[in-house]
Queue: 3 jobs
Job 1
Amino acid sequence: MNESIFHKSRVAFIIYHGNILYLRNSTMSHREWCNSLGINNNEYNRLVRGYIKDNEIVYYQGDFKSNEEVINTCVDTYKQVALDNNLKDYSVYCGVVKGKVGERWKPILKVK
């Protein structure tokens, strides 16, 4: 699976000024999407963002890392993300171990 196929197969989200924004059915990366919204690279790296794929909600920040801000944002928002995306039986994670493009990147911390 190449990068654009992965991007199209997931629902991307960002937490921006207290709002959860979604990008569905698009080949854009988070960075491309944020650039299209006028979000600069410094702000982009501070955003808590993530994706939904295969009944998993994954949160991270910067270079796919988890930290206290990511975990707190996750705990505060994952139920709304699940509701907004009609998820019933799902898992929630913070952070991923980067792998090669096309591979499934392993989530790190399971929250739910």
Job 2
Amino acid sequence: MLDPDGGTRIYSVHGELFFASSNDLVGQFDYAGDPDTVVIEMTHAHVWDASSVAALYAITTKYAARGKSVEIVELNQPSVRIHDTLAGQLGVGH
């Protein structure tokens, strides 16, 4: 979904993110076609493992390579703990 001014693409992620779903998630974004600002809204998602954190890192890296910024928002508290713990091991900072 584009925001009203058309400058931000908002993706809403739903469901459980774990090793079996992580690769599919990476393929759901339009890296080249999206505007310069992307928001990944995670209210209805849950991060379970390192592969999910790595997938989020891959997404942000693909956008960054195109000069675009990504913000991951609305992670639930257990997901934040997993993400922050594992992202530190991957050298990821969000």
Job 3
Amino acid sequence: MDLAGQILIAMPGMADPRFDRSVILICAHSPEGAMGLIINKPLAELSFSGLLEQLGIPRAPQGRDIRVQFGGPVERGRGFVLHSSDWEATGATLAVPGGYGMTATLDILQALAAGEGPGQALLALGYSGWGPGQLEAEIARNDWLTCEASEGLIFAADDRAKWSAALRGMGIDPLTLSAAAGRA
């Protein structure tokens, strides 16, 4: 099972509060583990312009402003820009299946600050990671649902609505989900 480019949707019974109602784009998945970015948990305490200021990156008048998200509990001081595939840093952009890219170098921040860069982007601080077989075990335990990713969901402006929107996209009414797992 390769989940790269897929969305994980946290089930109501998720035991870890950091992932409560999370929607995660899996950026890489292999037998060695998985890595993804939470796309629906905005960081209210940090703006993109504030981050640029902290990094000493000048912002042009036409500079872009993108949302800053809590990407996950691993390496929270590290930034990852999840973006549309219309921009690439040579040798530094991970191609994510489905037409996305993930770049973790300063050149994408500089491009966005100059009003350039990818058409769609969000910045995630930290990431979500799983060791070998861990994600598969969590899915089998009913911690996550998986579905196809869509640009409309990933880059939607209303972060708080992404969890419900992802479920509805699968034909599931969020009000019908139970926190208890079961087997048929």
